[in-house]
C-alpha cells in the first residue's frame, strides 16, 4: 500500500516537471516583439510626400494662344490693338526681301484685315532689366495661309529694323515674334517660351 502511494507521488512529480518543461519551451520559442516609434505625426520628407509641389509657372489655357512661362523668369500681359499694317508698308517689306508681288496685291490683302484687331502678349523679365522684353502678336488667319512660307512671303521682315516676324500659324491664327538681337535677357525669355507655344 505504501509502495503504491510512493508510485503515485512520483507520477505526479513527473507530470508537474513535464508541464514546467513544456511551458518553458513555449516561452523560449515565442518571438520577441520590438516597439517601433509612432511616425504618424512626423512630417513627410520630400521623398515620402504624396503631394506634388507646384512650380511657379504661368499657364494660359482656353485661349487662341497657349503658353507656359516660369514666373521666376518673366511675367506676361495681354493687350488688344488695331491692325496697323498698310499696303505701302507691306510693299516696302517685300522690296527689302527681294520679292515683287503683282500690282494691287497688297491693297487686296489689306482689305481682308478690315475691322481686325491684333492681340499683343508682352513678356517682361521678372528682374529689374527694363530691356528684357519679348512680345508675341496674334492675328486671325484671314488670308487662309496653309504654310509658314506663304505667311512669310507677305509679312516677313528682312531688315534689322523689324519688330515682328512670322513664327507660327494654323488654320485660324497667325503668330509673330519680336526679334531679340543682342539682348540676352530677351533671348532667354524667347528660348524658354517658344517650345511651349501652341495655337488653338
Task: Describe the protein's architecture and organization.
With 200 residues, the chain is of the alpha+beta class. It folds into two domains: 1-30; 57-199, no CATH class. Helices cover 32% and strands 24% of the residues. The protein is built from five helices and eight strands, in the order H-E-E-E-H-H-E-E-H-E-E-H-E. The chain has helices at residues 2-29, 87-97, 105-111, 148-155, 184-193, and strands at residues 57-60, 65-70, 74-82, 117-125, 133-140, 165-169, 173-177, 198-199. The strands form two sheets. The chain has a five-stranded antiparallel beta sheet. A hairpin with a 4-residue loop joins strand 1 (57-60) and strand 2. It is rod-shaped and about 135 Å long. The model is unreliable at 33-37 and 39-56 (pLDDT under 50).
Task: Looking at this protein, list some descriptive labels.
200 residues; alpha+beta; 2 domains; 3-stranded antiparallel sheet; 5 helices; rod-shaped
Give the strand content.
15-25%
What general form does the structure show?
rod-shaped
How many helices in DSSP terms? 5
Alpha-carbon distance between the two ends:
111 Å
User: For the CA atoms, what is the radius of gyration?
Assistant: 40 Å
Instruction: Profile the largest sheet.
Output: 5 strands, antiparallel
Mean pLDDT level: 80
Strand order of the largest sheet: 3-4-5-7-6
Derived from helix and strand composition plus strand pairing, the structural class reads: alpha+beta
Say how many strands there are: 8
Secondary-structure element order, as H and E? HEEEHHEEHEEHE
State the share of residues found in helices, binned by percent.
25-40%
Estimate nothing, just give the exact number of structural domains.
2
Low-confidence runs (pLDDT<50, min 5 residues)?
A: 33-37, 39-56
Amino acid at each position: 500500500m505504501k509502495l503504491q502511494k510512493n508510485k503515485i507521488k512520483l507520477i505526479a512529480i513527473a507530470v508537474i516537471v513535464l508541464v514546467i518543461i513544456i511551458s518553458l519551451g513555449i516561452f523560449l520559442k515565442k518571438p520577441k516583439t520590438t516597439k517601433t516609434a509612432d511616425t504618424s505625426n512626423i512630417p513627410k520628407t520630400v521623398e515620402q510626400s504624396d503631394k506634388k509641389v507646384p512650380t511657379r509657372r504661368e499657364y494660359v489655357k482656353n485661349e487662341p494662344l497657349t503658353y507656359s512661362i516660369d514666373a521666376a523668369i518673366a511675367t506676361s500681359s495681354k493687350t488688344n490693338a488695331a491692325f496697323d499694317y498698310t499696303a505701302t508698308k507691306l510693299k516696302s517689306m517685300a522690296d527689302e526681301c527681294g520679292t515683287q508681288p503683282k500690282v494691287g496685291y497688297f491693297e487686296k490683302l489689306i482689305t481682308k484685315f478690315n475691322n481686325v484687331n491684333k492681340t499683343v502678349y508682352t513678356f517682361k523679365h521678372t528682374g529689374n532689366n527694363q530691356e528684357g522684353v519679348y512680345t508675341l502678336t496674334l492675328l486671325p488667319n484671314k488670308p487662309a495661309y496653309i504654310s509658314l512660307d506663304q505667311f512669310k512671303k507677305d509679312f516677313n521682315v528682312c531688315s534689322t529694323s523689324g519688330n515682328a516676324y512670322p513664327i507660327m500659324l494654323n488654320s485660324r491664327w497667325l503668330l509673330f515674334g519680336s526679334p531679340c538681337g543682342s539682348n540676352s535677357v530677351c533671348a532667354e525669355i524667347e528660348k524658354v517660351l517658344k517650345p511651349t507655344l501652341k495655337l488653338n
